[in-house]
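Quick question: who can interpret this fold?

. . .
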Amino acid sequence: MSTFEMPRGIVISGTGLWTPPESISNEELVQALNTYAEKYNRENADAIESGELQAKPYSSAEFIEKASGIKSRYVISKEGILDPQRMRPYLPERADEELCLQAEMGLKAAKLALEKANKKPEDIDAVIVGASYLQRAYPAIAIEIQAELGIDGFAFDMEVACSSATFALQRAVDAISSGSAKAVLVINPELASPQVDYTDRDSHFIFGDVAVATVVERKDSCNAETAWEILGTKAKTVFSNNIRSNFSYTSRAADVDAFGEGKLFRQNGRKVFKEVCPMAAAHLENQVQELGYEPNVISRWWLHQANINMNMLIAKKLMGDDASPERAPIVLDEYANTGCAGSVIAFNLNSDDLPVGSTGVICSFGAGYSIGSLALEKVAL
């Protein structure tokens, strides 16, 4: 178990949230899936009857909301996803000289975070991009954004599935603590929709696209009126096969379809629920107790936004009867699961109202398994 003992005086001074302009409701998604399933079952009726193929099951908006709490999701490209003849977004390839889509998303969130933190690009020493999926192997998306903003320093990408944001924030804390940077821009552009199998009833509704960004810096350089001082960070990983995405460039060498069966996102949802909930609750309880707090006195928990039932169970374990949407805000009903960005969205939308002296925890959990968290206190400057 990793607990980073760091000096005080490092703060989150601003966050930015960029939301795509297009949204898909459960009803729209279900209509596309059911139309596709009806066509598939009709065209393969003989093979289904003989047992050679399995029929595609139908879905409903009620099923999705009950299973996940999700009501809608934002996406970069809506039309292709809802086309029963396509069932995937249409994202035209861009020339090497053009800003890539993921960098464009991240840049929009980054500018909002810099504005909130009252920072200019020349104030930033490092850029870290963390995301569940990266559009390419290299050059790094972070370096592309760094160049676009004109930041003089270093940049890199990292990937820890749905914990990429909290792990990236911890790397920012490490860089500032070591003296290798005074201010770090952490960006999480989650372009998840291309990795979704929209023909799969059990997973087609889970993910949405979004981008968030966070400025982390030393307290003595902060220009904002208030900020969130980072009291401690904590990370934990345990290997599990229950959440996988096997898409890989090595499919070419294995002579298999890179987008074929089992290559896109899949999970054993029941096992994930059973195993991750107690793991996350224990992780968070231990972290705040190590800092001298009890979980029920923490003002707000910005939990990973994957499933409302998971969040309710974890909140109940931490706060007992005091658990409520006010203390553990939910944003997945509107945004769906946005990979690593969910807890930062919850923080961005549900932190300004808290008074100075309030405490809170940003936490993510996901494939790996991986859990990352940051304990914070709101301070006046």
